[in-house]
Amino acid sequence: MTAIPLPYTDEPDTRGFWQAAREGRLVVQCCTACGHRQFPPHPFCENCAHAETEWVETPGRGNIWSFGVAHGPSLPGLQDVVPYPMIVVELDEHPHIRMVGSLVTGPDAPINSVPAGDIRIGLPVEVTFAAVSDDVTLPRWMPRRSEGRKP
Question: pTM value?
């Protein structure tokens, strides 16, 4: 698969997120008391401090809120793909939630597949998933297909 640094996927607060990603689903935490949605995950609700949350699926559509391009030096395993864009996505369904990730042209495309000149604030994106090891699937983002256009 790959030699890139991988996230810890078995931490109590994030285990549900990584399990859903392996299933091709994007999830956020939802407080069982007040219904507040949050990401990144926390051991309690950041709205009411309730200790119980659950994972709820979200459509995985949003817009680029911010971006940068990594030119190096880079982390081990990423030296061969610099420069590559990293984006911050503001979710359509939950505008207070922002997620960081790679911008790619498709699920199996390398993380440097989108030229930096093609990236802009407000660009509509949708989630896709890439298995980067036997145990880790990463959510990535790709430019949203035009409505009515077949993939």
Answer: 0.89
